[in-house]
């Protein structure tokens, strides 16, 4: 198949639009930096905590060019990476947020434009007929067997709660100008995510209802060729007219770019703010921190680009990432937010417990065999030893309980004087003392305020 020139032109226009938006947003960030009371690092990472509500909603919803354009996989990845690195480097969260608006609009419009053409293409039958009936392929509405219920429950919990510990999520929330705006952003973006998911379900249903032998794609089917992860561009390429598939390119590229720029900035902010500023150089100036952020964006971008060449399916890296977030980071997040007894000792033990158990439990996606076999562990259809017990959720709960238990034990050990305070590496006794003092001051102020209010209401 020859190079798709019209598609290449559309992609060039798309990338110029995104790059132009990123540059414009970077210029705006420079103006905001002069007016903002915060430092330059806050402007870069949190957009001065003044991100627009609509922009915030869009930014919370977010290698396939080679399929439609017949462009080399290497070139496709490099082009996407370079553009994302450049505009993230220039404007930080401002550039990421405003380019996400363009990208999400393109995703929404492009996919819904393509759906009618896919549903009415001559190679597919009515998806309502194939939902529960065997036609060219198995029914696209599956069933959950009892012996697989644990695995399905585990996957559900993973997808529902795993993303809550993502740095990119809190970066958007902290960029809101008020608590109300942050709450509205969360609820509105969650509803918008559901709407964006509808075209994906329909496209998958159409692909499962297609006689691929009647198309130029031929047999075996994409699922049998292990290309299910690329079903969107494959369906656009072989089941729609050329001009429609070109429109769909925008949706595919926008989805890739929206995810990449968020990962770039969140990873850079993690290193610069949490590691470099808090551990390596606590006295680092604002100018120095901005350079650290820029260097981090480039390094993370290059590392991420290199990882994509290890396996054509970036989905594998995403699944492993959200898995680690759910089993290791989510318990830490819950304890920090809801349990005051939590401290550094419990967090360390919980982290080590979570990561060791997760590694020993194995992962078929990266060909890591399980050393710990939970109940129901057996060979799957591909002959890989797989855990059918909800082991990720079990590890998450064990990690959570470990944090609380060891936090409570160490708190008793140091507060009761069972161990000298000089061994208190995390200074939990000092922190508890300062917390108690702050609580007393707050209580005193509240009592004084109540007394003044009572005096005002009883005076003539």
From TrEMBL:
Keyword Cell wall biogenesis/degradation among record annotations: no
Family: Belongs to the sodium:solute symporter (SSF) (TC 2.A.21) family.
Membrane-spanning intervals of the chain: 6-25, 51-69, 75-94, 101-119, 156-174, 186-208, 243-271, 291-310, 316-339, 344-361, 394-414
Species classification: Eukaryota, Metazoa, Chordata, Craniata, Vertebrata
Keyword Transmembrane helix part of the UniProt annotation: yes
Gene Ontology biological process: acetylcholine biosynthetic process
CDD domains assigned to the protein according to its UniProt record, in alphabetical order: SLC5sbd_CHT
Protein name as annotated: High affinity choline transporter 1-like
Main location: membrane
Sorted UniProt keywords: Glycoprotein, Ion transport, Membrane, Neurotransmitter biosynthesis, Sodium, Sodium transport, Symport, Transmembrane, Transmembrane helix, Transport
GO molecular function, one term: choline:sodium symporter activity
Subcellular location(s) per record: Membrane
GO CC annotation: plasma membrane
Membrane topology: Multi-pass membrane protein
